Amino acid sequence: MLYLVGLGLADETDITVKGLEIVKKAERVYLEAYTSILLVDTTKLETFYGRPIIVADREMVESDSDAILHEAHVKDIAFLVVGDPFGATTHTDLILRARELSIPVETVPNASILSAIGTTGLQLYNFGQTVSMVFFLDNWKPSSFYDRIKENASIGLHTLVLLDIKVKEQSLENMARGRKIYEPPRYMTVAQCAAQMLETEETRQEGVYHEDSLAVGVARVGARDQRIVVGTLKELTEVDVGKPLHSLVLLGRRTHDLERDYIRVFAVDEKTFDQSYEKYYGKTY
Question: Do 2-111 and 114-280 have matching folds?
């Protein structure tokens, strides 16, 4: 049996009771370590679970999945995923491969950023499509996220923006030369995301959002030291909410008064918050 076990968002104690029981009895335990990260290192997981863990990087999961699935017909294999097992399409691919090999699969859900973002006080049913923000390069600045935000904005919905992480990634030069040399880990910040959003608006100039549009920046959601900060996009380009992981929510115009009251306490500047809110939000049309 292949078990995909969600770990939650923060530390080793976020695993469910069912998930922990599976991990303890599994023949092998893998940790998917590139679509997201926990806020503690692998040794803490091993100590808490009482099991050795094999770290599965992108290359193993996407190119050598059969190694993970080896003997899963007759033995229990646990594949641990930060957040919820279905938070990334990669994990769907692994399940499809298991099905091709007639390997039974069971999933154990857990909290993901898609649900835990409710800690901001924004109502989950007021969210539209989730988008991803990648690190811009000098010659590559994709703006597909902008089109999805435009669609959400057209019906007044919030947009959750998931920020890029680079873990065990190779440079283009090293990939071209076939060298197994990896770049240091990089994690996009709220400030970088806000700056790239404004850069894209400056380029596209479709008025989807503005410098004084309101957004919520979050860091380390679910951890004891989680941070929430609210401000205009311009203000958020200058905030520092500390260690990863970060996410950002761009407010939709249909923001409810209860949502406003909840997030106002996190405002960088209550005066600018009130001005922007009066200008753009609380609208039902």
Answer: no
At 111-121, the pLDDT tens digits run 999 999 999 99
Q: Is 114-280 CATH 3.30.950.10?
A: yes
Known binding residues for S-adenosyl-L-methionine are: 9, 84, 87, 112-113, 163, 221, 246
Q: Which residue has better confidence, 3 or 175?
A: 3
Domain ranges of the chain: 2-111, 114-280
Q: Which residues are annotated as a binding site?
A: 9, 84, 87, 112-113, 163, 221, 246
- Residue count of the chain, please give it: 285
Top-tier CATH class for 2-111:
alpha beta
pLDDT digits (tens, 9 = 90+) for 226-238: 999 999 999 999 9
By the 8 A CB rule, do 127 and 158 touch?
yes
Q: Is the pLDDT of residue 170 over 70?
A: no
Q: Are 128 and 159 a contacting pair, CB within 8 Å?
A: yes
10: tokens are 């923060």
Beta bridge partners of 249: 160, 216
Contact 268, 235 (CB under 8 A): yes
Report field, pTM of the whole predicted structure over 0.90:
yes
